[in-house]
What we know:
Layout: H1 2-14, E1 18-24, E2 29-34, E3 39-45, E4 50-55, E5 61-66, E6 74-79, E7 84-90, E8 97-103, E9 106-111, E10 116-121, E11 126-132, E12 138-143, E13 149-154, E14 159-167, E15 202-210, E16 215-220, E17 226-231, E18 236-241, E19 246-251, E20 258-263, E21 269-274, E22 279-284, E23 289-295, E24 303-305, E25 311-316, E26 321-326, E27 331-336, E28 342-349
Antiparallel strand pairs: 1-2, 1-28, 2-3, 4-5, 5-6, 6-7, 8-9, 9-10, 10-11, 12-13, 13-14, 14-15, 16-17, 17-18, 18-19, 20-21, 21-22, 22-23, 24-25, 25-26, 26-27
Amino acid sequence: MKLVLxxxxxxxxxxxQTFLLALSKTDQTLSIVDPTTLKVLAKAPSGPDPHExxxxxxxxxxxxxxxxxxxYNTLGVIDLVNRKALTSIDLGALRGPHGLQFVGGKVWFTAxxxxxxxxxxxxxxxxxxxxxxxxxxxxMVYVTDDLKRIVTSNISSATMTIVEKTTGGGRGPGGxxPGGRGPGGRGPGGxxPGGPGRGPQTNWEETVVPVGRGAEGFDVSPDxxxxxxxxxxxxxxxxxxxxxxxxxxxxxxxxxxxxxxxxTPDGKxxxxxxxxxxxxxxxxxxxxxxxxxxxxxxxxxxxxxxPDGARAFVACTPDDYxxxxxxxxxxxxxxxxxxxxxxxxxxxxxx
Length: 351
């Protein structure tokens, strides 16, 4: 992921083959935007109730969660080269897809109504992994680059789930099955009939961490040490020690109706959008205190940081525009029209 961000930062500066992707919930479209000129280059149908979007590592395909609060079970697919919609992905019983991330060549998604998350492999065109959280409204997802740790926010359960990949419980090469016998049935020492013994088995250990009510938007600090989760109903922010899997601070940040939370690329600031308020809340990550409240409209949802540290894009959903924030001055420098009720935002790097 760090390499991808560095490449993206370089591409954004040069303007070469880098695109801003923006969803419109009302228009049900994905806008492909030139981040240098801020011109909409093309639009493609997104499918019903689009909420989040992510691009493949090669920047050629976009994937969109068709949410519907559990009414839908598809991921929209957009060919970014030819700028047209492809056949959507049917997730079957995994209804209410929302959070998205593209890691390890796969699309990771939450399935809110199924209380689960999983991954879709574009190479095989199959969902190849599903894991339940047992939590209500599993909404957003984060996957580490090594695919060994996964985090989800669970809105109605007021929890964060931290999942770690472990190994163990298998049969080592040459070892007997538990309670078994060696070759010829004359005591332990040989592998089970039919071939060599099995190696360590993969397991996933889940830790459920209680946070504040309405935990939804969250982000992992650029150094990978902390998880910050915005609690929409409490108006607080829970700070978690990622390695320790526990809450280490609760900030009285007054972020009622919080929707998304994002670190700036340098890790120094944290932006929080609120759906029902005029302000973008900006916090100092080091002292965990409010730096500024920036008026951007009447409400906001998706936040996208430009990795070179120049700008942030904030989807002001009820205002039908995307606010552009200068990360140095912390002021709004312009607006982008990408359709009514903008929400999910992402970068696509064409390779």
